[in-house]
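User: Can you help me understand a structure? I only have the sequence.
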Amino acid sequence: MAGHMWRSTVAVLNVLNFPVKPRSFLSSFVQFRRLNVASNSNVNLWDEYRLLRQAVEANPLPLDKDPRAVFANNEMNLREIDVYGFDYDYTIAVYRKSVNRLIYDLGRDLLVSHLKYPKDITHPEHDYDPRFAVRGLHCDIQKGILLKIDAFHHIQMGTVYRGLNPVPDAEVKELYHGSHVDIESLSGFYGTGPKMYQFMDLFALPEMTLFANVIEFFIRHDIPYDPEYVFYDIKNTISSLHSSGVIHRAIEDNVDSFLIHQPEIATLLKRLSDAGKRLFVITNSAFNFVDKGMRSLVGPEWTSLFDVIITNARKPKFFSESTRHFRQYNPKLGVKTWNKVERLSKGCVYQEGNFNELIKLTDWSGSRVLYVGDHVYTDLADATLKLGWRTGAIIPELEEEVNTINSIEYKKTIVWLTALEVLIGKLQIYEDPESQRIISEWLAERDYLRKLAKTVFNKQFGSIFRTYHNYSYFSRRFKRFADIYMSSVVNLLKYSLNHTFYPHRSALPHEPNFADVLQNHYKRSVQ
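Assistant: Let's start by predicting it. Here is the structure, written out as tokens:
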């Protein structure tokens, strides 16, 4: 029977990617009480707990990940890529966090000046807090709450906020008749409602915070409000800042203060161009705004690097509608022509258009095209589903998250949490009162560890990639629509243009983890 428990414990450690030494482990194990599956009278659950704890602590922690690596959801060989396409905002151009504060302040002030919201919402206690929200949250428009949903449409308890305060779990379950959000209530394909709206844009972080602060103000001052009106007042106000060019002009006026200068951008583009790759950019931003940023990032001759430049593209409609035709734009005169565009010339600037015309004029279709962008829906979804392009997601938050994951304390927390969950799963068969009391203590410890692992990323909402253990809804979407992902487009410079990205073979629950045997055969420098 000792051999039975040895195999059981080894299985636990293998789940954790821990190598074990059978002889030394077994010799220490036989000193403990044997496990009798047929009877609970000879089992000391705390002995099993301590044994597993000692084994976990005696084994090395998982290896670090490179925070500036390119990660693969789907196998992709760069040798097969002939054409590279890019979004502009938060793909080529990466902004400082001061941009979010700018958007927040402009939006808040417009609420007061144009929609006559209470002037007191401009008080410093309602200022922008960059630590409040994370990307990928849903807003229940009618209930006026922000919440985080996992890949299975379940709400992560403890991440539901009305204003700046969490909604108690019991109230959440009452509001949603449990923890599941039905598909009719969830946001549509592009995450835009009508009952729920998913914030997928990096520019949406100040919008979420403004929504929460306004709701909090109304609650504290006992002011009746309709959540739906508040939501659309704020959404339309923030949208107007973009469409009117107010934000763009503010950034243009002080581009070096808002734009992170990355000399590697020019290196990457020139490397691709020199290798004979075709380059294009498709952005919703206006040319003058893009030009100001690209001159800072790449230089005054940046247009010569691109075979096609498309501005004012109006994605995602660029991919889904075919009514708008391309117009050539004259940067010197600041006007567009109305002549029919019959070819797309290198270094020229075009506006509007649609993907049908793009394919017709360039023949850039299928898997020889890699398009990189930061917005899962606007940039990637239609590009991969309709055009068959290969896609890359830019997730700036990734680098900070990986650095957190690499920390010793986080690794220890997750390793022990995972081991504890396996232990609970195996020993819950003992149903006598004392055993169940112990299991309850372990479940309380599990709950504590899960919350601890959440708050190291963001106190309110945790990691953008996970709920407590499942993928987040954000992860589900970008894994579906992005072949590769990275924190910055310049991470591609780490790899040869002949490099193949291989996804990890993730074991399904019914499969063994075959990667375990390779865990310790590679040095940290390879990871």
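Now, to help you interpret it: The mean pLDDT is 88. The two ends are 39 Å apart (CA to CA). Let me know which part you'd like to focus on.
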